[in-house]
């Protein structure tokens, strides 16, 4: 007899199925029908876990926050500010290569219109990530590793670097490994932020 999957296991499967749909077709194509079809279950089976598409997307964004939290936690283990920022770029790009969806989420109209809870959930995720990077920059300034800049500017340099690199990668149909950009990006971030 087949063992029934736990709620956590099923929701994890839903997360990766939603990632596939977003990567292939965009966030607007995510639906309970499509998720159920890809999981090989009935649509009512999805309703055991999520009331509707909006609730599925909100869950998705919260899970994404957990993944970004892991990026920050790994970065905090670096010895220097430079190590920490390098880890952020590396781990963020690994996440991008694995899921291929972050930019499609951040810039999707589906997030900004309709249920305001989706936008708030994305804002919470981005704010959390931003604050984690900001803490690293503040520590770097205190330790004399990073120039005395407004930490908000430092965050924008790091996040802007990630976003622009991701844009170019996506425009090139993800034909190269974005993680191979880390050395080039760090060389220039060092010139901009570091003493």
Descriptive overview:
The protein is mainly α and 195 residues long. It has a domain at 61-193: Tetracycline Repressor, domain 2. Helices cover 73% and strands 0% of the residues. The termini are far apart.
Concise structural overview:
With 195 residues, this protein is mainly alpha-helical.
Question: What's the structural blueprint in terms of helices and strands?
Answer:
Elements: H1 7-25, H2 32-39, H3 43-46, H4 53-75, H5 81-99, H6 102-106, H7 109-112, H8 116-142, H9 151-171, H10 182-193
Helix pairs in contact: 1-2, 4-5, 4-8, 5-8, 5-10, 8-9, 9-10
Mean pLDDT: 90
Tally of separate helices: 10
CATH-assigned homologous superfamily of the domain at 61-193: Tetracycline Repressor, domain 2
Number of strands: 0
The percent range for helix content is over 70%
As a whole number of angstroms, the C-alpha radius of gyration is 19 Å
Most strands sheet = none
Reading off the top of the CATH hierarchy, the class of the domain at 61-193 is best stated as Mainly Alpha
* Assembly category: single chain
Beta-strand share of residues: under 5%
Order of helices and strands: HHHHHHHHHH
The CATH architecture assignment of the domain at 61-193 turns out to be: Orthogonal Bundle
Give me the secondary-structure category: mainly alpha
Unreliable runs = none
The shape, in one word, is elongated
